[in-house]
Amino acid sequence: MRHLARKRFGQHFLEDRDVVRAMLDAMAPRRDDAVVEIGPGLGALTAPLLERLDHLHVVEIDRDLCARLRARFAPERLAVHEGDALEFDFATLPAALRVVGNLPYNISTPLLFHLSGVAQRCVDLHLMLQKEVVDRLAAAPGSKDYGRLSVMLQYRYRVDRLIDVPASAFRPQPKVASAVVRLVPRPAAQLAARDAGTFARVVKAAFATRRKIVKNSLSGLLSAVDIQALGIDPSSRAEDLPVPAFIAIANSMREAGPR
């Protein structure tokens, strides 16, 4: 029976075999890799992944699709985790984990932040996302797409844009184009923020009022004099600051203590 895409799950099923091949060639999985696929859907990535892997984990929220996957693939080859990827504990899967998937547009940003929590357990992530989201992930300071998502993800990962994917590659066709991105977690030694929570707080505050200059957007966190002392122009805007500037601000706040 043909499965009808469910709008509430943001389902758009990948059907273009050339795109699948290009995505998996970029990932280059080895047979003994620990891999989890998010949102396997009808198995467009799942089946060719299992041709290259001994075992695969998948996380799928749609119970009808879970039933199809369990009927199609042997349990010793495919472990189906039924549930919401936003609530799934990826830390329960083997370390040196590789993540792959065609992420639903409606949850892609919160899911990226959720996955960041287990970044140090991951080798890499190969994700298909809305092109607009990939533009933001890969954006450079000073560009229109550079924002909170850019800073938070570039701090945690090296971001490599891989493949642009047209809407025609999916059924039903979405109204937007997609792209595949590779995220490679940075080693712990490169994560220079002394407190991840403070860093996140600074970035969120800086971009909450995007057009404000940083001495105003961060006025409740750090004075203009303190910002200037870090070699950062207090009259600059958040969108113009590179990731190391946010790290410097967060570390200065950490040293100064609670406000």
Write the CATH homologous superfamily of the largest domain.
Vaccinia Virus protein VP39
**Helical proportion?**
25-40%
The proportion of strand residues reads 15-25%
The whole-number mean of residue pLDDT values reads 92
How far do the termini sit from each other?
60 Å
Mind telling me which CATH architecture of the largest domain this is? Answer: 3-Layer(aba) Sandwich
Describe the structure.
This protein is of the alpha/beta class and 259 residues long. It has 2 domains: 7-190, Rossmann fold; 196-256, Orthogonal Bundle (Helicase, Ruva Protein, domain 3). It has 10 helices and 9 strands. It has helices spanning 17-27, 46-52, 63-72, 108-116, 131-138, 148-156, 196-208, 214-217, 224-229, 243-256, and strands spanning 13-14, 34-38, 56-60, 78-82, 97-102, 122-130, 157-165, 170-171, 178-185. A 7-stranded mixed sheet has the order 4-3-2-5-6-9-7. Strands 1-8 form a two-stranded antiparallel ribbon. Helix 4 (108-116) links the parallel strand 5 and strand 6. The relative contact order is 0.12.
